[in-house]
Each structure stands twice: as C-alpha cells, then as structure tokens.
Amino acid sequence: MLLIRCPFCEEDRPEVEFRYAGEAHIARPSDPAGESDGAWADFLYLRTNPKGWHAERWHHVHGCGRFLNAVRHTVTDRIAATYKPGEARPDPGRPDGEANR
Amino acid sequence: MRFSFPVLVGKALGGHRTWPRQWRDPEPKPTYDVIIVGAGGHGLATAYYLAKEHGIRNVAVLEKGWLGGGNTGRNTTIIRSNYLCEESEALYEHAMKLWDGLSHELNYNVMYSPRGVMMLAHNEHDVRVTKRHVHANRLAGIDNEWLDPAEAKAFCPILNVDPRLRYPVLGAALQRRGGVARHDAVAWGYARGADSLGVDIIQNCEVTGISRNFAGRVTGVETTRGPISARRVGIVAAGHTSVLMAMAGVRMPLESFPLQALVSEPVKPVMPCVVMSNSVHAYMSQSDKGELVIGAGTDAYTSYSQTGGLHIARHTLEAITELFPVTRRLRMLRSWGGIVDVTPDRSPIIGATPVPGLYVNCGWGTGGFKATPGSGHVFAATIARDEPHPVAAPFTLERFTTGRLIDEAAAAAVSH
Amino acid sequence: MTRERLPATEEPFRLASGGRIDRTGRITFSFDGNVYYGRPGDTLASALLANGVHLVGRSFKYHRPRGILSAGSEESNALVTVRRDWRRATPNLRATEVEIYEGLAAESQNRWPSLERDAASINDRVSGLFPAGFYYKTFMGPKSLGRAGRATWKRLYEPAIRRMAGLGRAPIDADPDRYASRYAHCDVLVIGAGPAGLAAALAAAEAGASVILADEQAEPGGSLLSETHVRIDGAPAWDWLAATLQRLSSFDRVRVLPRTTVFGAYPDRMLGLVERISDHLAAPDANVPRERLWQVRAREIVLASGTIERPLVFPDNDRPGIMLAESVATYLHRYAVIAGTHAVVVAASDDAYAVAADLVGHGVRVERIVDVRETAGRAARDLVEAAGIGVTSGAVVLGTRGRRRVSAVDVAHAEARSESIACDVVLMSAGRQPTLHLFSQLRGRLAWQEDRQALMPVAAIDHVHLAGAVAVAGGTIGAALESGFNAGETAARTTGASAALPRVPLADADPPAWLETAPAPRAVRVARGRAFVDFQNDVTTKDIRIATHEGFRSIEHVKRYTTTGMATDQGKTSNVNALGVVAGALDVDIAALGHTTFRPPFTPVSFGALAGECRNQLFDPVRLTPIDPSARARGAVFEAVGQWQRARYYPRVGEDMRTAVDRECRAVRASVGIFDGSTLGKIEVAGPGAAEFLDRIYVNNLVNLTVGRCRYAVMLSEAGYVMDDGIVARLARDRFHVTTTTGGAAGVLAHMEDYLQTEFTDLQCWLTSVTEQWGVIAVQGPKAREVLAPLVEDVDLSVSALPHMALAEGRILDVPMRLFRVSFTGELGYEVNVPAGHARAVWDEILKRAEALDGAPYGTEAMHVLRAEKGYVIVGQESDGTVTPADLGLPTGAAKRDFVGKRSLSRPDMVKPGRPELVGLECMDGGGPLEEGLQLTQIPDPPAGTPASGYVTSSYYSATLDRPIALALVSGGRARIGDTVFAPMPKGARQVRIVAPVFYDPKGGRLHV
Question: Cα separation of C744 and C549, whole Å?
Fold first, then answer.
C-alpha cells in the first residue's frame, strides 16, 4: 500500500486515506463555449498515461480533505514528490523510476 | 498436423519425440502487408482471421515479450455476453458464437466450458439494473434469466443466500452459455493456427517507433530487431497502447490500471459455474485444474507495475468468504496482476485512427478475454477492408468527441 | 483398506537420545486411520518417519506413490488433510509443517480406494498418453459431429478431467473459526530466525530499534535447530539459541513471532504476515483466533530467509524414501529420527558428505556416496573417508527401484555399466537456492550466476539487508552470525538507533564451507523411467523437452505448458532444475532464460486470515439514521441503500408490502405522512463566493436565489450527464444548505471540493459535510401544517409567510430547526431538519401528532410511488449516468454562460434527435404494473436483435389512481405521446401507451396551499 506524503498534513499517510484523482495539470479551459468539440473532448478524455513519471492528483479524503499533486513513476510506483495545487511540478527522480529521497 | 486422440496415441508410441513445432520462430522480413503489434489473444486472433478469412497471409505479429504473456495470460477467463448496451451485446455475442466452435476451428482444445455465469444482485438497485439486463438481453436474443435466491443456490450449491448477510443475495441473472476457457490455450491455439497459415509471429521484438511518410501515412515500424515496413499497422497491445500510440503522435482516452487476481490451491470440484458480484467485488470460478480463480477490482491509481496493494486482495476475499463460506479454510496459492486500459465509457476502441494506415484495438478494461475471438475477427475485417466491420463500427475513437458514449458501467455504478 | 491397529513397536526409527522433541510426553495420532505414537515437538512428517511410514501420498497426474521429500515448507509430496472435527477439515497441508497434537487425525489425499492401492495408478502405466499439454490436443469431440461433437467435451471429457483435478477436498460446511488482523509498525523487520536473523534482531534491538522477528517454524532457530556440532560464544548452539531468545524477550520493543510466515511484500515496505495461532493445539480455546494477519510497515528489512536445497534430477527420483539430504539431517538432529537403516547418498555438492558422515555416526549404514561430479572437495573427501564410506565419482544415476518404498539405486560409472545398490533411503543434494522470493517482490532484480549455480540479486535495494545463507549460499554458521549482526546494526542505525552494541557472536567447531556444487542439470540420460523435475505436478524432463521441441521456448511458456512450478509448492524445489533442463534443451546459458516472477504468497495463506474479521455485520459499516430505533420499534422493513439502512415500509399486523405501501400512499395524499429523510447528503456552503460557486457547479441559476428560498438543482458531470440532484436553500447571502441524493453524497462533496480547490480558486467559499449532523423528518400531506404548527416556535407557517420552496429557521420542541418547505410527493410538504441527537425525539412527537390526524409513517417504497405519480425523477433510476437534463425534461441552463457540464451538452450526439426522453406509460391491457427494466419496442414480437425504443425506469401500482403507472425513457418520447408501444415479455408482450410523465395534479395546485 502506497505511502503518500500529504503536503498539507506534512506526514506520510497510507493510500487508503486518499482517493486517486487522475492526471494533474489538466486545466479547465477558461472559455468552454469557445472550444471546438474536438478540443473539448481532448480536455475531457485525453490522458498522457505514461510509462514513467506521472504528475497526478490525490484527494486526502479521509484526512485533511485537500487535493494534492504527486509525481509518481508508473512502473516502480515510487513517489518522487508531492506538492500543492498551484505549485510548479517538481523535477522527477531518476529515469529508472527510483526516487531520490 | 491435426491434433486428435489417434495422433496422440501414435506419438505416444513414438515416445513423443516427433511433435512438430506449434509455431515457428522466424526472423522478421523487411516488409509485410500488415503488422499487428501485440501477440496477445486479440492480436493473434486478428492475424489468424486476416489469413483465414481475408487471404492476407503476409502478416507479422510483433511481440516485445513472449506471446500471450500480457493480459491474455493473466485474466480470470470469464466468458459472457450479457451486456446492456445494444452495441456491446452485438460485440460480445459475436465473440460468443465464435467461442462455441473455437476448439474445432483451431484444432486446439481451448477448453471452452459454458458452465453458466451468474451475476448477483444484493440490493434493490442491483435488482433493477440486473432485471434491465435480463430484459435487454432477451430482446437481443441473448440468454439471460432471472433467478430468485433459492434458484441461485440450486445452481451453485456453495453460494450463501442467507438473508442475514450484510448484503444478502436478492436474486441473480444467469447466462447459461457463459463460462470459462483456458486462456493460454486460446493464445497458443490462435498462434498455431495463424502460423500454419503463413503468419510470422516474432517474439522478443519490441516496437520502438512508428514510421510515417510525408503525407502522414503509416509506412512501418522501428523495432529492437530492426525496421519493418508495412502499409497497415494494427496496435493490439493492452497495457501498452498509450505508449505505442504516442509513437504515432496520437494521444488516447486511456488510463492503465493494475488488475489483480488470485487462485486457491487446487481442490476437487466444488464450484460448478462462474459467479460475479459487482456490488461486493467478487468474481469466482473453478478451473479444470481445480484452482478457484478469483478476480479483484482494479487498484485505484494508474500503474504499469502489474502489482498492487494487499488491501485489494483482502477486499475481494472478504466478499468471497461471505458468499462462499466453505472457502474460508482454503488458501491463496498465487496472486498476480495485469494492466488494463480503461476508456471513459469502459467500452473498447476498435478501428481507424487519425493516422492513415494505423488501426487500434484497445480499451477493453477488465473485460477483454471474453471478446478475444470476436475482437480479432472484426478487427481483421476492419483492417482488411479498411472500413469498420458493422459490429465494430460503433466503437470509434470519434465517439468521445461527439458524445456517443457506450457506457456499460454507468447503470451499475450509480446508486441513489 | 485402512483399519485401526495398535502399533507393534513404538517409534522404531526414533533414536534413544538427542533431538529437541519432548521425550517426557507421548502423543497418539492417526494417519489414514492407523494409530501411531509421536512426541511433543514432532511434525506429522517426523512422527511418521519415526514410525517407519514413508508412503504418504499419490502424485497428481500419475498417482505414483510418494513419500516425504523435505523437512520444511518447500515440501511438494507429503500433502495431507487434517480433520479436527466435522467442520474443521483443512486440505493440502504439508505434513512437514503440521505439528502433531493429541488426537490429531490426518488423511492422505488424491487416492481411491486407499493409499496403498490407488485405482488411478493405472495412469502411471499409460503415462505415455499424458505428456505435457496432452489435453490441448484431444478431448475436443469429433468435429464431424458438429455441435454434438462439441457437447462431448462439455458432457463427458471435461467433468472427468475436473474430477481428476484438485488434490484435497474443500470443506463442506462453513468455517467456525475466527481470524484476527493487526497492523504494526517497526524500525526493523527481520525475516527468518536462523543464526543470521537472530543475530540481526539482537544487534538491532541492542542498538535501540524496535524489532519484529518472524519465522515460519514453530520454534525460532532455523538451521541451528539441527546443529549439534557448532559452538557459539563457547557454548553449544542450542544454549546460545535459548539465551538469545531470552535476551530478545527482555526488550519491550522486540516482538518475536514464531509460526509466522512473511508471505508478501507490498508497496512502500508494507509486508503481509500470517501467524498460525491454534492449529497445533489439541483443544484450542474457541475465543482464540485460528490465525492472525499482520500488516507490518517496516522502515528497514533484514532478509535472513536461508536457502532451499535442490533435488537431483535422475530417472525415478520420486519414490518414497528419496529425500533431500539436508532434510534427512534435520530429522536426525532435530527430531532424533532416522529416515532409514541403509542409505545411498546421491550427491552433486559437498553438503551431502557431511550428512553421510553424521548418519554413520548415528548407526545408519551408508552404502555409498554416488557423486555425479568428477570429484568432491578435499575436506568432504577426508570426512567420509574417516567415516569409512565408499564414494563413486563421475557416476550417472540410471534409475531407482521399489514401488511403495525405494529399494535400490542403479548407477553407471567407470567400473560398471550398471550397478544396483540396495538401500531403503536415498539422500540427494544438488546445491542450494537462496530463498529470495521477498527480495523479488520488493522489486529486487535477480539473475542467474553461473559460479554460484543459483539465482542471485543483481544489486542491493534500499532499506533491504540480506543476511546469512540467503546472501552467501553454503556459508558457515559463523559467517551467518556475522553478516546477520552487521545487517541488524546497519538497519538499526539507518533508522536512527544509536546505542552501543556488544560484539558479534563467534562460532567455532564450524563445519567448513561447502561451496562446490555441480551445475544444474542440463542433460539427463533417461534410458527407462522418468526423471521428475516438479514432483507434485508430475512434470518430467521429457515433458520439458517436448515443450521446447514444440516451440515453447521462454521459461514462462514452458512453465504454463508443462505446469512445472505451478503446484502448491510453487516450484521451490523445481524452478531452478527446470531452468537447467530448458537451457539444455535450447542449448543456451541459463542466464539467458531469465526467470519467472516471484509472486505473493510465499506459502499459501488461508482466505480466512486475509478476510479477517470482516464477516456478517462487520463486513461493511452499517449506517443508521438517528430515527432508526423508532422505525425498528414500529416493525419497519428495511432496505440497504449503499451502506445505509432505510425504512422501506411500515407494515401493520397482517399487511404485506403491497398493502402497507398502498395504505401509506393514501395516508400521505389524504392526511399526512412522516418520512425519515436523514440519509440524504447535506453540505453547508459558506463564504462570499458561495452563491457564485453553486451557480458554476449546478445547472440552475443560483446566484439570484433569494435569501429564505430553496431551489431544486441538477448537477452534471463535466461530460454533461446528470450526476446528482438536490435542494439548494439560501439561509443567508453567504450561506447555503445543499442536499444531495443518499448514495451521491460523498461523490458530490468530492466533486465540489475538486472544483473549489483546483479550478475555481478565485472564490472564497468553504464546504462542510453535515450529512450526519442533521436528522431530517419530511412531513407531507394536506394536514402537514396542522401537524407542525403546535410544535414549532417562532415560525409562521402560513402560506404567505412560508410559501412552497421557502425556508425558515426556528425551533421545534425547543430544539434548533431548519425548516424547508419542499415536497417530493406533490402535496403540501415540509422537511424538518433538527440536530441529529434530537431527531428521534422530534420524530416521535411529530409522528404522534400525525397519527392523531389519521396520518402514518411511510418508507422509501411509498416515497418512490408518490414521486412517480408526479413525474419527479430519481437520479440513478430515471438516469443511469448516460442521460442529459434535456432528456429528463429538467432545466438545461441554456441561459447561463457556463457551468460544469454545459459545454458538453452541445456536443452533436448530446442534442441529436432520437435521444431518450422521459415519458409516462399507461398499461392498456389491464394487467399489473410493468416490470422495471422492460424494453419497449414498436411491435409486440420483434425479431432478436431489434433495437429497443426505450425501457421502463420506474413502475408501481398507484393506490392514489388505482392503476399501474410507469416512467420510461423512450427515444424521441415527447413527440410520441399518445403512441402505443409494446413491452415484450417471455410469454407475450404488454401493450402500453406513451403519456406525459405526470399522473397526478399536473398543474401542481396541491403544492401551493
């Protein structure tokens, strides 16, 4: 079971306290009416789904209730960093998926 | 060479020294008419039908590992066609009809066993949704009948229908033609069949790039064993689709999740059919080897690790031991995971892509094994004719843009 | 046939002294009905061997007689069923792990009618018909017979195959035992309590770390338990063991867990352990759990899991009496049992030489050491020469003899083409494979090392320390102690423990290291008989060669095709040998083959232990409303809605559901009904940006909602589908009370938080879930005002002061109240919200008033009917996640600039004609209510595959109207009002007319009184 460091609680907490909330940094268009059907579908559904470092969101639903971001390697499941929404995505760890910490 | 009992006896007398190879291990040719990327059940079936039904034999199936080593070798082997949406009904029924004669078609015993699939209902919402399935299936000509708890128990004697359970069984829908098959045999049977028709199955050959010409049309692939050219390339690689499609510059509406499964130690027959419960996340059958085969839900986060948390296995075994109390003293022998590609509506994507000459067959989520023969069959037709097979036609990539989702999970998931 | 008999001689193969068994005790146990004596401390295997019993099972496919192969959890042959009582029968237990207790009754498996005479042993004679993968090549049924041919697979072959499959039988009744579970955190988890593990635990504990030490055996000690030569710190090894355990138990921060298998490693160093608590007890206390699952989060892990010895692969290497050499030594030293009186040692490593010398020292005749290598190490040769044991080197084993017990080994060597050496026990030793399953599960990579003839770690992994034989196969006890001690110290220091340590324990009189091992078998000359690689699944070298010959060339393919390594031992004694045989068949290096992945569990774990206490009512939390006790006192019948229990109807004496529901509905429309709505989700939305936020997240216009007013609001997903609905009530300019459906509450809150925290960050708005803070009593019906008026304080209930969809805050029965004038029934209605702690008392009072006015409580069933009469949708019933608000005839927010889901609504398939639309249905055939979920078609008898025009979403008998009513979604339904459609049933179709989706008071006059 993953341990996720909530940047608000400042503690490592087990995965079951959180709900996975998908890929991060997918901003809702500021003018949805101006988006074509294709662009809108891209926003709704297209995902990078990489085999590698992935910026994603977690919701600390059984904890502080905040949404947070994480950079996790999807092959090793190592979490390199967690950060607050609005902060810049940190550099990931090593290319082989092992964390630097 | 045909497999049969007399042949088996003949070979036995010869000490089994002269069985021919079930498939060759050819070097890749520089060019083919069609390249299929992914030698799982769906990919191998596609190649088989390209050769068998469309006369297209100059085909290569490229596999980065060993054939059948992906989800085909990791699933819980459930076969059924009792889906809700008309498009899905057509697709899985198409597969069902092919399952029926598959061992004979391939001259390979895939051990297709239509022992019945029972879907349990545990609350009024479940009952409503399940009955809707039953009515829809009847209209579609798919066998699915409603059973009350006593009838469900008669069909599966070890099922616990005690009304005092936390979530008691209120009834079930039974598809008698549903059942299981031996997953490895499906891959091997199609591989042997395709190979005998001239298809090259090339293992240990990883696609590292998809080549296109100035007009954007596919011209072939780059691999760890060199470039191979082809005018038509079909991507059929569950758990790797986003990576491959990205090589052609196409982003996909896919997320890949771990899906865990486990087996018990083998015991004498005790489970006559397949039982599935979406409400309490328990899916169980018994293989011909005697192992109870149990499927869990997906882990919560996207991953290609093919592993997951213990809490997932625990969660499903809590449900299994409640529904089948005699299993509590049995033991988990082995657990493993696969990678399932999930689309926004949990229905597959089959057909053309924005890149001319590039076709994709993906997004089967947790339900790909049952579709194997049908998927290969319609995908082959789609590639051969460069136009969708009618059964595959609704499952386009475009449906996400126009809003014509084929959502199987929505009905079951929403409770009020 | 088995029959009871008294033992003729007690334990004829037990030595007069030695061993760790308790000679003061005597245990009577039975195996296949035969009674034997054993000692406390015996396993079933050691006790049977003490009694000279070697035949304990039959192999899976060929039903060959099988004996005990090993002394540990790697056992592949000796599988038994232990039957404690008629409800506690456990199949597939390894006799080498079953601890005997007084009265233990064990049975062999997979044989009929008896172990001695198994009818299915005929399979062995026709084994040629059953090579690997034979079932793929036949059993398909004659193709010429078409469907009938295929039926022979289903009706004839498959049932026969299934009956032959499986080993033990599942219990026939529910398990009465309890299983517990715990979580634990520790600084250092030490896996394995042999010399390395004990030293590691000691060092870590002395350094100040918290330690959990787990070992799968009943006693900690590992290889020390059968070590009678070595001295540690000047004392016999067993003395050091006892002293170390004593020292460890003196630390509060150390927990020693014997009988505990670390079965799996999971992300971020969470490990699964299963502790066996009561299976070894003669009379376990019913309150004690049988097993306990531990989920341990360890900061550092010391893996001291030792090694597993490899069998040799030679023809007929599977007979009872052919055993692993180290295991024979274990039986000798730990259990004081000799496995036979005249032994042959088949050696491919020096280890076996020491065992041979030991046997001679205890009075066993060792006829010969048959070494398949050209020569053994110097020390080994000297040792056996001193013991007077003959050695034949460079030998080839041609086969063995003996049906139910080995009687001879046939060898070929330089001096003889074939020599038969009589014996009653054969020891085999072909080197050791370190037990690295957990290392692999922790994502450590393994690779074949030719010089070690074993799979070894490629590189170290963070936080995991290997210690002892698992790291240096074949090392000495002294080396194990030192490496363990260092590993424990390093692990502890990493966690910050900093106390000073004593010095490393020192061993002397240590046997020298035996490192020379023959290569894993690549080519085995099989003139006759079969050479077994996987004993349990009867996989021979021939099977593996057939597989590679047929094109199965990866080790995973070979494994799946031949089933080698897939039995209950998961290849512990066969995987490496299989690699060797495959490499030989393909003529490649073993290293090139890779290896199959290690998966949890290390040894099988019972479902019960994994499910733990989650049984019956503990399976899932039960959510009850504060009014629940009153409803139950009334005899309400409940239904599960998610985790909630909701009162479905309140039958009076003699009423069935239909009668009760009809009565409840009539009561609501004629006088008044009282309904517990406490399960609905409630969210308090507050802040200067609250109105704007709600406006952005719901379809409806909420920014202009007047203070003191409520509005029905629809929530969409961003993809435009109806997701939830509820009432938004404006308490103040910056404070709203929002309701959701019962099942949607958590999802709606998460959806709102998501947008608020990560999209609409410009808004100052806060959300608080108050679902459980408020009890909700709905009072619905023409007499509703009459019921409430005397009870409420300082709230004017007149229609002018509190019109439909208005709200008021005040008190009821001296308790704070939020009063919403809303109706889900179409009658004059209020929802009384009071703090949950007061809800039951308020309910009781309101109900008393209501019943005095001919009112009644009503449940969810009546609620469904009443709302359907008005055409009010229920999210999840009229919608299924695929319909838009326009489909349901709900507001579409067309005038609003943007809200969540709006953009998606204008996608082509979301607006095209023919979409499903909410309509009503009337039965034209005088029958009862339609079944929900029925499909609707144009013609009564459509051909299979005809697309449906729609389906029935809700259907009830309406007591109000005295006829059935239904709601449905029909393609382009609104334009088809008045049309006739059909609902095909198995025995003919129902005929229905499409009508407007409202059956009662269409203008809504009854709402506005």
Answer: 58
Radius of gyration, alpha carbons of chain C: 38
Nearest by CB: A2 against C268, C750, C904? C268
Give the span between the Cα atoms of C1007 and C993, in whole angstroms.
27
How many other CB atoms are found less than 10 A from the CB of residue C852? 10
Label residue C250 exposed, middle or buried (CB < 10 Å: 0-12, 13-18, 19+): exposed
The CATH code for residues C681-770 is 3.30.70.1400
Nearest chain B residue (CA) to C164: B268
Burial C495-532 (b: 16+ CB within 10 A, else e): bebeeebeebbebeebbebbbbbbebbbebebeebbbb
pLDDT at C343 over 80: yes
- Domain ranges in chain C are 3-124, 133-164, 179-307+434-508, 520-588, 623-638+651-679+774-854, 681-770, 910-1009
Interface predicted TM-score (ipTM): 0.96
Q: Is B95 helix (H, G, I), strand (E, B) or coil?
A: helix
Q: Among C172-176, C641-645, C994-998, name the one with the lowest average pLDDT.
A: C172-176
Query: What are the helix (H) ranges across C824-935?
Result: 836-852, 860-869, 902-905, 908-911
Q: To probe the interface with C, which of B156, B161, B401, B415 has the most C CB atoms within 10 Å?
A: B415
For chain B, the straight-line distance linking the first and the last C-alpha, in angstroms and rounded, comes to 58
Check CB contact under 8 Å for A44 and C904. Answer: yes
Average pLDDT in the B362-389 region? Answer: 97
Q: Does any CB of chain A come closer than 8 Å to the CB of residue C763?
A: no
Candidates B37, A78, A86, A85; CA nearest to A94 is A78
Specify the pLDDT at position C514: 58
**∠ Cα C185 C190 C196 (to 5°):** 165
- pLDDT tens digits, one per residue of C920-953: 999 999 999 999 999 999 999 999 999 999 999 9
Handedness of CA B381, B385, B387, B390 (dihedral sign): negative
Does pLDDT of A98 surpass 90?
no
Note whether C268 contacts A61, CB cutoff 8 Å. Answer: no
Verify whether the Cβ–Cβ distance A50 to B309 is below 8 Å: no
The C425-429 sheet, strands edge to edge: C322-324, C425-429, C342-347, C365-371, C391-392
Record: contact B311-A77, CB cut-off 8 A:
no
Would you state the structure tokens that stand for residue C695, as one six-digit string?
A: 């406006």
**Cross-chain residue pair A32–C907, CB shorter than 8 Å:** no
Tokens of B7: 């042949």
Mutation target to probe the C interface, by most C beta carbons within 10 A, among B92, B167, B267 is B267
Nearest to C573 by CA among C513, C622, C532: C532
In this prediction, residue C625 carries a pLDDT of 98
Domain boundaries C179-307+434-508, corresponding CATH code: 3.50.50.60
* CB spacing of B302 vs A1 below 8 angstroms: no
Contact present, C643 and C672 (Cβ < 8 Å): no
**C236 reaches B (C-beta below 8 A):** no
CA of A22 vs chain C CAs: smallest distance (Å): 11
With an 8 Å Cβ cutoff, is B328 touching chain C?
yes
Which CATH number, 3.50.50.60, 3.10.20.310, 3.10.20.440, 3.40.50.970, labels domain C3-124? 3.10.20.440
Looking at domain C910-1009, which of 2.40.30.110, 3.30.2380.10, 3.90.550.10, 2.60.40.10 is its CATH number? Answer: 2.40.30.110
Chain B residues inside the 8 Å CB shell of C966: none
Which residues of chain A approach chain C closer than 8 Å at the C-beta? Answer: 1-3, 14-15, 19, 21, 27-28, 32-33, 35, 37, 40-41, 44, 57, 59, 61, 65-67, 76-77, 85-86, 98
* Distance between CA atoms of residues C424 and C429, nearest Å: 17
Please tell me the distance from the alpha carbon of residue C499 to that of residue C489, in angstroms, as a whole number: 10
